[in-house]
Amino acid sequence: MRTSAGDAVEPPPFTRVPDNPSDAVLIDAVSHGSVPAFVALFDRTSPAVSAEVAGLLPGTGQRCEVLAASYLEVWWLAGCHTEPGIDVVEWVKAIARRRIADIHISAEWDGVRPRPSYAQLELAGLLRRPVDDLLRS
Fold this sequence. Notes:
By secondary structure, the chain is mainly alpha-helical. Helix content is about 55%, strand content about 0%. The protein is built from 5 helices and no strands. The protein has helices at about 25-30, 35-55, 60-75, 90-100, 120-125. The longest helix has 22 residues, at about 35-55.
């Protein structure tokens, strides 16, 4: 790319995710605001994180809320975790476990579908997916 003055300009970082990047590369890209890297990281790590959350929480509504809020925390705090050997799955699981510890389960889901939370809506918007696709069992 070139500016109107003819100077070379670097394209925005991480507009395209390289083939088979490590989790550390994806986290670094996410820390620079790369949505494609965030989507790739979510797709790679969410099955393991979802399984952990499902084992700790009954009811898909709360699981989806914890998953959404945990990944939003990853989006905002990725720059704090860019060390080369980071275990991203364990980091996200730890976020989810902390979020689960913070919630109080007052009653079982009564069969009425609750309105998606702000965290679910924000994550779905960032991933450009329907809220219902966030939690894959």
